[in-house]
Design brief:
Layout: H1 12-26, H2 28-34, H3 41-65
């Protein structure tokens, strides 16, 4: 659970920004968007394979141009 503890002199704007950052880093919203609609297992498998292919191509492209520095 993501939470922000406010001190005596903390600003509310700061707390809201900090909370949004923590929620985004934890991946709660991404997970929620992903589960918004039912996805058939075959469709999920296709999406996962397409994402892996994109990552591989991107990685190969970075290595080919010499921009891959220890990744």
């Amino acid at each position: 659970m993501t939470e922000i503890v406010l001190g005596e002199g903390d600003r509310v704007e700061w707390a809201i920004k900090s909370f949004r950052r923590k929620v985004q880093r934890s991946g709660v919203l991404k997970d929620l968007r992903g589960k918004r609609f039912y996805l058939k297992p075959s469709a999920a498998k296709k999406l996962k394979a397409a994402a892996a292919l994109r990552r591989r191509r991107s990685s190969a492209r970075r290595r080919a141009t010499g921009r891959d520095q220890g990744r």
